[in-house]
Amino acid sequence: MNIRRCAAALAAVAVIGIPGPAFAAGSSPSPTGPATLPAGLYGDTDPKYDGVWRQSLALLAQHTAGVRPAARAVDWLTGQQCADGAFAAFRADPARACDAKVMVDTNSTAAAVQALAALGGHDAATGKAVAWLKSAQNKDGGWGYTPGGPSDTNSTSVVVGALAATGEKPAAVLKDGKSPYDALLGLALPCSGDGAGAFAYQPDKKGELAANADATAAGVVAALGQGLAATGASKGGAARCSGSGKPTAAQAAANGAAYLAHQVAKNGYLTSVLPGATAQPDYGNTADTVVALAAQGGTAQAKKPLQWLEQHSEAWAKQSGPAAWAQLVLAAHATGTDPRDFGGLDLVKALNATGPAPRSTDAPTPGEAAGTSAKSGGGHALWWTGGILLLVVVAVGVMLGGRRKRGQQP
C-alpha cells in the first residue's frame, strides 16, 4: 500500500495488504510514548502509527452500513485533533497540547474529516481540519504526507476526498493557480510504455514516473471527485486507456481504471512482494482496486476482484483488524454488495466486534443513501513494520492496504 496505510501494515506484518496508506495507515507517529489502549479505540494493536487512520475507516465504513457507532468511539477520534485542526497518527495524551514535536500529517487529518463529515454534527472540527489542509497545500496544487513534503498521489487523493466530503469543490481549492487535479494529472502516466494509464506515487530521483497500483486506485477515485467511501458509477464507463497529451481528470480516471483492470484480469487480485519472498496476494490494494473500478466503471467492472475478495479475504481481515474489515465494507458499499453477506461473511458484525458496541446496527433500508451525499462524505472512497520491522514496514507499506486509511481509516 502506500502512504495512506502505513500503519495498519504494522498491525498485520504477517499478512500482505493492509493500510493504506504507502505507509499504510497514512499516519506518522506522535512522540508521546507507549500508550494504553483507550476504551473507545477500534482494534487491539498499538495505535502509534495508525490510530486515527483505522478509527476513521471503521467509523466511515459503519456509517455506510447504517451503523451508529458508540459515542466514545467518535469522541476518541475528535479528541485526537490538535488546536490548529490537524491530526497526528496517534496522541497518547490528547489532553496535552500539540507542539512542534507532534507529527501531524495530511493523511490522518483527511481521513478523520471524511469520517466526521459522514457522521454529521462536527462542522467545527472538520472546518478547522480543512483550513489546516488548505494551509498545507503545495504550489503544484497537491499535498505531501507531511506539510512541506513533496506532493504524492495518495496524500493528494485522500485530501480531495476530505474536501468533497465537506462540500468543497476540489477544483476550486487553488495554490498559486494550481488545483489538486493539476497535481494528480502531473503524476499520471501516458497511454504508452510500461504502466500505461497508471498513476505514480511520486516521481523518482530522475523525475521519472513509475506505475503504482495503490496510488492508481487512490488517483482514480480522487480524479472522479470522490473519497474513501466512494460509490459505484450508475452507468458503466469504459476502462480504456486513450488520448494523448495531458488528459482530463475524467480521462485519467478511465486510464487508471484500465491499468487496474489489466492487473487483476488474470487472477482477480493484485500481488506484492517482500524482499526475499515470493509474491503474495495484496488484499488491501485489491479492495481499493474494487472501489476504484466500481467508481469509474460500475459494479460489472469490479466483479472479478470483488468475487476473489468474497472468497479469500476472511483470514486476512481477521488477522489485520478493523482497517481491513472497513476496507472490505467500503468495497461492498462501492459495488452495492450486502456487507452483511459478503461471500457468506457478515463484515459489519466483524467490524463492530473490534471496538465498542455501536448505538445501533440497523441496516439501511432499500434505496436509502447511507453516506452517499457529498455532505455526508459518501462522495469519495500501511507501509510497514519496525526495527527490522521498520524496514519491513517501509517495504510492506508500499505493497499493502487507514486514509487510509479506513478506520484508519482504518
Q: What does this entry look like structurally?
A:
The structure is a single chain. With 410 residues, the chain is mainly α. It has one domain: Glycosyltransferase (Alpha/alpha barrel), CATH 1.50.10. The protein has helices spanning 6-11, 51-64, 71-79, 106-119, 123-135, 153-165, 180-185, 213-223, 249-264, 283-297, 303-312, 314-320, 322-335, 347-352, 388-399, and strands at 271-272, 280-281. The chain is globular and about 50 Å long.
What's the CATH architecture name?
A: Alpha/alpha barrel
Query: What is the CATH first-level class name?
Result: Mainly Alpha
Helix content: 40-55%
Percent range for β-strand residues: under 5%
Stretches with pLDDT under 50, minimum 5 residues: 1-35, 365-410
Strand order of the largest sheet: 1-2
- The strand count comes to 2
Mean of the pLDDT scores? 84
Overall geometry? globular
- Tally of contiguous helical segments: 15
Order of helices and strands: HHHHHHHHHEEHHHHHH
From the alpha carbons, calculate the radius of gyration and give it in angstroms. Answer: 18 Å
Helix vs. strand class: mainly alpha
Number of domains: 1
Major β-sheet annotation:
2 strands, antiparallel
If you consult CATH, what is the topology? Answer: Glycosyltransferase
Distance between the termini: 13 Å
Keywords: Membrane, Signal, Transmembrane, Transmembrane helix
Organism: Streptomyces similanensis
Protein name: Terpene cyclase/mutase family protein
